[in-house]
Amino acid sequence: MKRILISQRVDVIESYSERRDALDQRWSELLWEAGCLGLPVPNHRRALTELLKVLPIDGILLTGGNSPVEYGGLAQERDETDELLISFAVSNNTPLLGVCRGMQSIVLYFGGTLRKVKEHVAVRHEIIINNNLHRSSTRNVNSYHEYSPDKLPDALTIFAQSMDDEIEYLRHKNLPIAGIMWHPEREIPFMPDDIELFNIFVQGTSYESNNTCSG
């Protein structure tokens, strides 16, 4: 099975004076359904650095949760984890998919900026996906974010937007790195399109491919 590193959100439990790494269990379920093995990683720079040296991996998933510190977030360790994982993906040509906060981290890493948006928290809306130069499609997705890309860096290109022109899906022009703003793990049942999308980036295949993560 393909081994996929998964970043985790930071939950601050004030009553216990604890900062906890946390991950929705449905991420592991979704990856398993796609034929992949999810490996959560700690928000600890030194430990993660050592893990990346010794653990063979096939892909990286940056999950949602915690706004970047630059935009009011309170989890500096989360910022460091995302930066380290993206840097590793860039250096090693490792497939990486960012979801919501994960996509925001991709935009910031490559020099872009974010801006606050309205009516994108706990709603559903239509997006237009440009699959290639000759074909586009629409689909209905969930939405749980307060910040969307504002200034998009030159290294990234838009593949889907919402009806109010917010960026919902982007890809790196030269590397197997992409980001989406909706949450595949929150769909019940999981959407086949989301599993296929994840397979595309793990395998580095085209939109028309039906390959899975297995093997």
Layout of helices and strands, plus pairs?
Blueprint: E1 2-6, E2 9-13, E3 18-22, H1 25-33, E4 36-40, H2 45-54, E5 59-62, H3 76-92, E6 96-99, H4 101-109, E7 114-116, E8 121-132, E9 135-144, E10 147-149, E11 156-162, E12 167-172, E13 177-180, H5 192-203
Parallel strand pairs: 1-4, 1-5, 5-6, 6-13
Antiparallel strand pairs: 2-3, 7-10, 8-9, 8-11, 11-12, 12-13
Number of strands: 13
Query: Helix content range of the residues, please?
Result: 25-40%
pLDDT averaged residue by residue: 91
- Large-scale geometry: globular
Question: What would CATH call the class?
Answer: Alpha Beta
Strand order of the largest sheet: 4-1-5-6-13-12-11-8-9
CATH architecture descriptor name: 3-Layer(aba) Sandwich
Please outline the major beta sheet.
9 strands, mixed
Mind explaining what this structure looks like?
The protein is α/β, with parallel strands linked by helices and 215 residues long. The protein has one domain: Class I glutamine amidotransferase (GATase) domain (Rossmann fold). Helices cover 27% and strands 34% of the residues. Strand 5 (59-62), helix 3 (76-92) and strand 6 (96-99) form a beta-alpha-beta unit. The radius of gyration is 16 Å and the shape is globular. The model is unreliable at 205-215 (pLDDT under 50).
Keywords:
215 residues; alpha/beta; Rossmann fold; nine-stranded mixed sheet; two-stranded antiparallel sheet; 5 helices
What is this structure, in a nutshell?
A 9-stranded mixed sheet has the order 4-1-5-6-13-12-11-8-9, sandwiched between helices. Helix content is 27%, strand content 34%. The chain has 215 residues and is an alpha/beta fold.
